[in-house]
Amino acid sequence: MQITIDIEDDVPLFAQLVNQIKSLVTSDQLSPGQALPSIRQLANDLELNNKTVAKAYKILERDAVIQTKGYRGTFIHPEAKSNCSVNINDWVNEQIQNVVAALKEGGATDSEIRIAFNNAMHISPRSK
Amino acid sequence: MLELQLFYGILVLQIFLFSFYFPKLLLQRMQSILTNYPPQEYPLLYTSSVDECKIFHRRYALFNHLCMAFGIALVAGIVLNPEIMEASGAIMLPWGYFMLQMLPLLWLEVSQCSQLKQIRKGDFRTLKQASLTPRRLFNFISPLWIAIAVIAYFSLAVIGLHKHDYDINFSSDAMEKILILGATNIGFIVVVYFALYGKKKDPYMADKDRMKQIGVIVKTAVFTSIAMSLFAFATEVFDSQTQTTLLTIVMSIYCQAIAFTYLYLVLKTMKPEDVDFSVYQANE
Predict the structure, then answer these.
(1) Cβ separation A40–B197 shorter than 8 A
(2) CA closest to A30 among chain B residues
(3) Mean pLDDT of all residues in B248-252
């Protein structure tokens, strides 16, 4: 079972990892409960920074495609296949569009919205 | 006298195995690879020309012949002056000669590291591949061997401390052995860790060959650790003042066991006909 990333692709490296693992899950090449390599092993094999792989794993865990069991390692989530169809980006886009539409209706200008958004991004707490 | 005869036989065996037989097998392996997988068809495997490779092979052979000649001279010297074996440092003779015999192998390893570094520098591929199968220690060696290595070390520690009535005196021989072996075992753990999880030294090597290589490293580390503990145990048990020749024989057998394990694993596990050389053909 191989994973391939293209370092010259426009798609960010962590996103390539996420997409490929999800693709392998939906095509049943990765089964629920199957172990995945550690962050260090995958990062060294792909010659990537540990943080890139860690970010990909974090997203996959957030999306309940994988689950980390401490020292025992990382495994494919029991309901990974159904969870792969959930796309958080669609939800994010929908929320932002709703908020922007409400702000414009309230009279806020585009630049006021952009400044407020940037401020919110800088001060918003990191998710766990 | 019998012990001395036995020592001559063991030392001659050491000379034969590690300055003639195994170097000959390694040289045959290198020459076979050069013949069957030449640079014209497998350019990614080489960083030097065919002539440079052949010069390297000749130098390697010469280096081993010189070690062998030195070994024969050593045996002749001991036969003519057997009182050498009664000197206090005689036990280290096989070890000292063994270190000399390992120099050509060390040179080979250093050359290979340098070659792999150049191969890595020349790897401009933008597609990176990795296996999604996790590598775990027990994929490469049975837990029983790890348990034996741990038990052997702690047994040595207990025996050594028991001989000195559990008085932890850092200047005693026993404590020295425990600490040196402990540090060496930690070194082995580091080597095994980096073999399992570290970066690929050869960027083109096929996964299955890499697994075999990791297996060789893991097994060599574990078996060497066991051999070290057993040898140290033997030196604790024997009275070194009355049985110097016997200890010297044990030392030679110990050196041979370590080197034999590594070379046997390399030659048996990484046979050229089982290695996937297609990965070294030119990129499309």
Answers:
(1) yes
(2) B132
(3) 85
State the Cα–Cα distance between residues B213 and B13, nearest whole angstrom.
Answer: 28
Please give the Cα distance from B101 to B109 (Å, whole number).
Answer: 14
Q: Which two tokens stand for residue B10?
A: 């063991």
Nearest to A41 among B126, B129, B134 (CB): B134
pTM of the model: 0.83
Q: What is the mean pLDDT of residues B218-222?
A: 95
Chain segment A19-55, per-residue pLDDT in tens: 999 999 999 999 999 999 999 999 999 999 999 999 9
Here the tokens at position B7 are 């020592």
Q: Mean pLDDT, chain B, as a whole number? A: 89
CB atoms within 10 A of CB A16: 20
Place of tokens 């766990």: A128
SS3 content of chain A, % helix, strand, coil (to 5): 60, 10, 30
Which residues in chain B have their CB less than 8 angstroms from residue A30's CB?
132
Interval B3-10 mean pLDDT: 87
For residue A126, pLDDT beyond 60: no
Q: Of the candidates B148, B156, B150, B153, which has an alpha carbon nearest to the alpha carbon of residue B236?
A: B156
Indicate left, alpha or beta for A47 from its phi (over 0: left) and psi (-120 to 50: alpha).
left
Look at residue B156 in the predicted model and tell me its pLDDT.
87
Q: How many CB pairs under 8 A join A and B?
A: 61
How many Å apart are CA B282 and CA B284, to the nearest integer? Answer: 6
Query: Contact, B78 vs B85, CB < 8 A?
Result: yes
Q: Is B124 at the interface with chain A, CB within 8 A?
A: no
Nearest CA in chain B to A74: B134
Of A93, A112, A91, residue with least CA distance to A103: A112
- Which token pair is B202? 């050869």
Tell me which chain B residues have a C-beta less than 8 angstroms from the C-beta of A56. Answer: none
pLDDT value for A128: 43
